[in-house]
Amino acid sequence: MPARQQGRGEVARQRLAMAATGALALGMAPSKALANLGMVLLFLLFLWELPRGIHTLRHHAWGWLLVIWGGWLLFSALVTGGVSGVAASEHLRVAKDLWYVPFAVWLAAWGIHRSGFHHLTILRLFLLGFAIAILQPLIAGEVPWSVFRDGTRTGFTMHNPNTLGLYAVAVVMILAGQGVSLFRHPRLPRSVPPLLWVLCLILAMGGLVASQSRSAWLALGVIPLTLPWLVRGRRRWLMPAGVGLALLAALPFTGELRQRFVAEWGAVEALWAGEAVAAPTSSMGQRVEMWRLGADLWRQRPLTGWGPASPPRFLAESELQAIRHHPHLHNLAIDIAVRVGAVGLLLLALQFALLFRHAVHAGRAMAVTLVGLLAIFLVDSGATLLILRNQGLFFLALFGGIAYSLGKMSPRPAASPGRAETPVSTTP
After folding, report:
1. 412 by DSSP, 3-state: which?
2. Is 115 inside any structural domain?
3. How far apart are CA 107 and CA 361, in angstroms?
4. pLDDT value at position 255?
5. Is 206 exposed, middle or buried (0-12, 13-18, 19+ CB in 10 A)?
6. Phi and psi dihedrals of 144, rounded to 5?
7. Total tally of structural domains belonging to the chain
8. What is the torsional sign of CA 284, 285, 290, 295?
């Protein structure tokens, strides 16, 4: 092939990678359709570069994990899934969804690597999308401004309040980890970056208050744990201090959230004491009973589980009518253990361990940011099953993809103006 045609093909592939990565980062908060388009474009990019992609996967531990994970899911769907009484076709469908989770992380990492985007640019696109998701319904009158004062739960364009809470905590983590320098640009006056930082923080606090999500507020606990690494250096303490002040300012608007915690504290005490919940009508009480059901099921088949599609079947047959409509067990570890056993849970834990390992290869600020984001995802997953929900999958794909591309893929794209390049491992 002539060199000119090769050059045009390379430019076309890079533009496709830029469009795909930009659509995922920008659309994951305000528009599931745009984020899904980004994932489709990432898959098309992978098909376009299939020989190179397969060659790269063969030389990465992630590629072998994908093969082993897929093999175990197939075994679970076709062999062990029969004991749950669920059709094999349903097991295969859920197995496909579960296998797609680490593959989506790989697609995002590949797209980020091929796009040439700096990782800070991707974070900025995510912040812009979050701002659109909050402001557009307010400006259009679809959500009243009083939602921040009245404590009415809403998800804005994300529809699910828990998703809104998760994304809001992610924004806070990014702002605390990256600071004002995230918005610096040679063409911007020096007064603009601090204003943008404060605006994003206000929007994040507003989203967190509007979501009234208990799991999101618990996930906020990850951020103080990062302080020892964030406050090093001259004036680095200003950003975490600003986040702390914003949280204190938001507390008076969390009356509904505090009432939910107090009303359901009895369920927490019952779980701690190993007692039955008297009336599991609250969401926390239902979760306690689902976790107990999952633990009992896992003890019966600890290694192999009951099949990828088994939890909805067992929930539908539960003696407690209050939990029969739930599609999963509302806890990532328990749900995966029931579906694919301890072996599958170990394989999933290895996937997260690899992502954490790659994240720490970045420079200090980016490493702390990515480790915090992944930890927030895991804490939030203690009360739901994010990986089988579109916007939870987008979250893990984007931030896990950034971590993987920083820790394993080379060469690195050029640094954004006004920001030093983040160091990265050059392991092939």
Report:
1. coil
2. yes
3. 20
4. 57
5. buried
6. -75, 150
7. 1
8. positive
Report angle CA 54, 55, 59 to the nearest 5 degrees: 110
- Crossing angle (nearest 10°) for helices 265-273 and 255-263: 40
Quick check: pTM over 0.85?
yes
pLDDT at 2: 58
Residue 273 in domain: no
Range of the domain at 63: 11-264+326-408
Cα angle 337, 386, 298; round to 5: 15
Give per-residue pLDDT as tens, 200-233: 998 998 888 888 888 888 888 888 888 777 655 5
**Is 386 a member of any domain?**
yes
Cβ-contact 78, 308 below 8 angstroms: no
Q: Per the structure block, which two tokens stand in for 392?
A: 């939870």
**Omega before 411 cis (within 30°)?**
yes
- State the pLDDT at residue 308: 95
- Model confidence over 55-89: pLDDT tens digits? 888 888 999 999 999 999 999 999 887 888 889 99
pLDDT of residue 426: 33
| Dihedral sign, Cα of residue 52, residue 58, residue 60, residue 63 | positive
Alpha-carbon radius of gyration of the chain = 22
> CA angle, corner 406, sides to 405 and 412, nearest 5?
90
Q: Which amino acid is at 394?
A: F
Look at residue 268 in the predicted model and tell me its pLDDT.
58
Contacts 24+ apart (CB under 8 A), 248-252: 249/205, 250/205, 250/208, 250/209
How many CA atoms lie less than 13 Å away from 274 in the CB half-sphere?
A: 1
pLDDT band for position 274 (cuts 50, 70, 90)? low
CB 173 within 8 A of CB 230: no
Residue 427 to residues 20, 103, 274, 368, 408, Cα–Cα distance (Å): 25, 20, 48, 21, 6
The residue ranges of DSSP E strands in 36-184, in sequence order, are none
pLDDT at 141: 84
pLDDT grade for 112, boundaries at 50, 70 and 90: very high
Hey, what amino acid is at 389?
R
Least confident piece of the model among 8-12, 28-32, 339-343, 378-382: 8-12
Contact 414, 122 (CB under 8 A): no
- Residue 288, token pair as written in the block: 């306690």
Within a domain: residue 312? no
Query: Rounded to an integer, what distance in angstroms lies between the CA atom of residue 193 and that of residue 179?
Result: 9
